[in-house]
Amino acid sequence: MDVLKHLGQILRWLGWAWITLAIVFLYLIPFVRMGNYTEETLQNFSKEYFWSEVGITKLVSTFGIAIALIVVGGYVQRSFENRWSKLKNEAIGMLKLYGRVQISELSSKLSLSQTETVKLLAQLRQEREHEFSIDENDVVMPGHERERPKKEKEIVRETEKIVVKTPCPHCGTLNDVNAEKCVNCGSTMKK
After folding, report:
1. For residues 41, 47, 49 and 50, what is the CA-based torsion angle, rounded to 10 degrees?
2. Is the pLDDT of residue 66 over 90?
3. Which of 90, 140, 182, 191 could bridge 168 with an S-S bond, Cβ 3.0-4.6 Å?
4. Please, what is the Cα angle at 30 between 28 and 32, to 5 degrees?
5. What is the C-alpha to C-alpha distance for residues 96 and 124, in angstroms, rounded to an integer?
6. Per-residue pLDDT tens for 121-137?
7. What is the pLDDT averaged over residues 98-109?
8. Around 63, how many Cα atoms within 13 Å sit in the side-chain half-sphere?
């Protein structure tokens, strides 16, 4: 991700350096070397370097390339910033949805490496718009954590026999103690 940011900056810098060098070598140095600054020599210089066919060709080709570098660099930088902004919004959305999520899971959902995910979270924390904490490998957003069932087991009476049921750790639906999968969400029951 950072490659795009740096590539955009480099292209823009190259464009501005190109313009500076072109002005110095194509116009300033020949102007200084001219030495004689009468009105007639200034008009001749102007005709030769700006209004002649060769002068216009140099002007257009040199500054056209430089402007293209600056525009492409700006586009690359904006695309990086837009992508980064979109990733921030997705990360906050996931944190609000799940409340607690592992960094590895968050990075796979955002299609980022874990290092880039940690950078993204650090930047979000610096902005101070959203409050969350990082606990070992989990990212926790207070107030958005899903409620987990508080009871370990619950006894439910069914036609004159007592059945012991346990809540699903994911959705909270009561299941038989010996059930391997939840009847509601299908997730594996931990024993």
Report:
1. 130
2. yes
3. 182
4. 65
5. 14
6. 888 888 877 788 787 78
7. 85
8. 11
- 8 A C-beta contact, residue 121 and residue 134: yes
Distance of alpha carbon 40 from its chain centroid, rounded?
57
Cβ contact 120:112 at 8 Å: yes
Q: How far apart are the first and last CA of the chain?
A: 42
Every domain of the chain and the residues it spans = 2-140, 147-191
Q: Shortest CA distance to 181 belongs to which of 160, 159, 166? A: 166
β-partners of residue 135 are 138
**What's the burial of 60, exposed, middle or buried (CB within 10 Å: 0-12/13-18/19+)?**
exposed
> What pLDDT score does 21 carry?
93
Report in angstroms the alpha-carbon separations of 13 from 7, 9, 96. 10, 6, 40
Is 75 within 8 Å of 9 (Cβ atoms)? Answer: no
